[in-house]
Write a structure and sequence with these properties.
Distance between the termini: 41 Å
Number of helices: 8
Shape: globular
Structural class: alpha/beta
Oligomer: single chain
Number of domains: 2
Largest sheet: 4 strands, parallel
Low-confidence stretches: none
Radius of gyration: 18 Å
CATH class of the largest domain: Alpha Beta
């Protein structure tokens, strides 16, 4: 296109002009070299003690959230990608990240898991942003994995403060009582659930979601994210 000729797309990571032709929007944001060389993590881990685990491995820590799988570490590369997806409205990039996460998860044993549940935004925050990034990721995962994505099972009833500058204890207090399960049909009872979010830092939000899901009868909770903060 004429605009691409005058203002050729530049990779979000290496800042070089992307010279590949006929790129869809998502691929016009990251060059093939940088995309293929993202540092990918390989093993799930316990959110409490951080020990590496297998998906099927039983592990007894105090967290309601049983395990976490993150596509990568929240380094400057993943930070750039997530920032443009989440705050610049690059939904096609979010879908591409979700598809990449799905490809990595295919190497894990997910046969016992039934539902994908995105971490919800409060309706005010979702209206301001225009979308829920976790729902975009969940939709991409559902397309690639044989898992169901029920609607509005988990809702956010408190418009909590931004967690970014809060301490670990403040984060826990901030999200306490923020979520509610709507499951009149009791479809969660006895099921293994995959929670979906963009980043895990302390795990406070995901653990609070897992708490109310387990109160509603869920058996086990795995969280999957694009990145984990080190």
């Amino acid at each position: 296109m004429v605009l691409d000729f005058i203002y050729p797309p530049v990779c979000l990571i290496c800042k070089e002009v992307i010279r590949e032709e006929f790129l869809p929007e998502s691929k016009a944001l990251v060059c093939s070299y940088c995309w293929n060389n993202l540092k990918i993590e390989e093993k799930p881990f316990c959110p409490e003690c951080k020990v590496e685990l297998k998906i099927s491995q039983l592990h007894d820590c105090s967290a309601y959230l049983n395990k976490v799988y993150a596509l990568g570490v929240f380094d400057e590369n993943f930070q750039a990608l997530i920032h443009h997806f989440k705050y610049k409205g690059k939904i096609s990039l979010g879908k591409r990240l979700g598809y990449r996460l799905a490809e990595e998860l295919k190497g894990q044993n997910l046969s016992d898991f039934t539902y994908l549940i995105p971490v919800p935004l409060h309706k005010v925050r979702k209206r301001e942003r225009g979308f829920n990034q976790s729902e975009i990721l969940g939709e991409a995962l559902a397309q690639k994995l044989t898992l169901r994505l029920p609607q509005n099972i988990l809702i956010r009833i408190k418009n909590t403060k931004d967690q970014t500058k809060l301490s670990i204890e403040e984060r826990k207090e901030n999200v306490a009582g923020a979520f509610q399960v709507q499951d009149k049909q009791k479809i969660l009872h006895g099921k293994k659930i995959i929670l979906v979010d963009d980043v895990i830092t302390t795990g406070a939000t995901l653990n609070e979601c897992a708490r109310v899901l387990k109160q509603a009868g869920a058996k086990e909770i795995l969280a999957v994210t694009i990145a984990k903060a080190s």
